[in-house]
Amino acid sequence: MSGKALSTQQNEDLRRVVAQLVEEKFEGNKTAAAKELGLSSSALQEFLKGTRGAGAKMLNALADLTGQSLDTLMGRPEHDDVRQVRTHRYADAIGNHPLWKALRAKLERFFSPMVLDEVEGLALKDGVPEYLDEAMVRRFAEGIAEHLAKKDEREQQSKKAGT
After folding, report:
1. Thinking of the domain 1-75, which architecture would CATH place it in?
2. Where are the beta strands (DSSP E) in the chain?
3. Closest by alpha carbon to 144, among 42, 92, 73?
4. CA distances for 91 relative to 51, 76, 95, 125, angstroms
5. Cα 44 to chain center, whole Å?
């Protein structure tokens, strides 16, 4: 079992989103799209060809560029209340994995309880992998932490602009 954070299907779905974004927002200019996504041109090309998967950096940039939530980009069902998703897909949540408590304890030095709570409630489309490793959980936590930081930053900017 590899330590891939996203399933093949999730990466394929994201490739379609990125390809559409490149065509519509950047008029086919992959270099401009890569720059906006914070990626090298070669990294974007590899992703679009399917030789590379999406990482937290790309997911966060896509969420920012499209205005879609990470849940939507990852193909999770739309719910007004995240707890409904957790209840609905609770059996598939990372927090139910036998290794979760030990991994959470290791990561508490690096991430806030709020971020780790979000990771704990993640329900992956293809279910939680049989083997859950620290690197995989760290990637999820980094993505969520970065997304929350950007969200806070946008809210602060909105408040300043409205003041």
Report:
1. Orthogonal Bundle (1.10)
2. none
3. 73
4. 31, 15, 9, 12
5. 16
Q: What is the pTM of this model?
A: 0.47
DSSP string, 9-47: HHHHHHHHHHHHHHHHHSTT-HHHHHHHHT--HHHHHHH
Return d(Cα 86, Cα 90) in angstroms, integer: 5
Six-digit token pair at 19? 């390809």
Beta strands in 62-153 (DSSP E): none
Q: What is the mean pLDDT of each run of 10 residues along the chain (163 residues)?
A: 64 87 90 90 92 85 79 62 41 78 89 86 71 81 84 83 71
Residue-range domain boundaries for the chain: 1-75, 78-163
For the chain, report the end-to-end CA distance as a whole number of angstroms. Answer: 52
Residues 6+ apart with CB under 8 A from 112: 145
Torsion angle of alpha carbons 100, 108, 81, 140, nearest 10°? -70
Cα gap 151→99, rounded to integer Å:
30
pLDDT at 29: 94
Give the model's pLDDT for residue 126. Answer: 67
Q: Which two tokens stand for residue 114?
A: 């709020």
